[in-house]
Specification:
Elements: E1 2-4, E2 7-10, H1 24-35, E3 42-46, H2 52-60, E4 64-69, E5 79-85
Parallel strand pairs: 2-3
Antiparallel strand pairs: 1-2, 3-5, 4-5
Amino acid sequence: MCMFSKFPLLRLIAVNKAYRRKGFGTEILKIYESKYKGKVDRIFLCVSSFNDKAKALYLLVGFKEVGKIDGLYPCKRASPLHNKRR
């Protein structure tokens, strides 16, 4: 985890393939959110542009795509940036 301006930025979340689609990703995001509850009014995360399942999860739990960051990951594609206001 790092900071994006003065806000937390989650750059990587990974769930073992055997445990996907079982709620673990959602729980990890809840922990991430709870860590900053009452400290900041928004949190950010990035996702690889080709990871449609992760993007769908982030939208489902209330994140919105707010931009793209070029060159963040080795794939050399722009990585969507999402945030969630609280």
